[in-house]
Amino acid sequence: MLDNLRIGLEASRDPKRRRAKEIPPAAIAKFPVLPSMYGRRGGDLSGGQQQQLAFARALAAEPELLVLDEPAEGIQPSIVQAIQEVIRGIADEGKTSILLIEQSLDFVRSVGDVFYIMEKGTIVWSGGREELDDPAVMRYLTI
């Protein structure tokens, strides 16, 4: 599993870090359960653990932009809550912008600042947290 984390370093802009294979402590600190699993293979982890591993792998490169595609999908509620807290923490640090693609409205409302609703590849609505009210949601997101 440690090698799985190190793959994330390949995207780092710091050549010294890539050569040394040093995973930034902050990437792992966000998911304290990971170090206890270093001896395991990534494929042997539960879905929630795999999601945390993928998240930490992406953070290892210390990106300016983090793209998350449905990080809560199929994950147990306690892990979803941990992921929400990590996303909020990253946003609060102010070093990394986050583009979150997610179908769970409750999830995006809990972590987002600016929202876009797309329909067939076109942005049909945008606004801040206070503007993402039920009428806006129902206009575009109901069946």
Describe this protein's structure.
By secondary structure, this protein is of the alpha+beta class. It has a single domain, classed as Rossmann fold, CATH 3.40.50.300. The chain is built from seven helices and four strands; from the N terminus they run H-H-H-H-E-H-E-H-E-E-H. The protein has helices at residues 2-7, 15-20, 25-29, 47-60, 77-93, 105-111, 134-141, and strands spanning 65-69, 97-101, 114-119, 122-128. The strands form two sheets. The chain has a two-stranded parallel ribbon with strand order 1-2. Strand 1, helix 5 (77-93) and strand 2 form a beta-alpha-beta unit. The protein is globular and about 50 Å long. The N and C termini lie far apart (41 Å). The mean pLDDT is 87.
Strand order in space, largest sheet: 1-2
Indicate the proportion of strand residues.
Answer: 15-25%
- First and last CA, distance: 41 Å
Total beta strands = 4
**CATH topology-level fold name:** Rossmann fold
CATH hierarchy: architecture: 3-Layer(aba) Sandwich
Cα Rg: 17 Å
When the domains are counted, the total is: 1
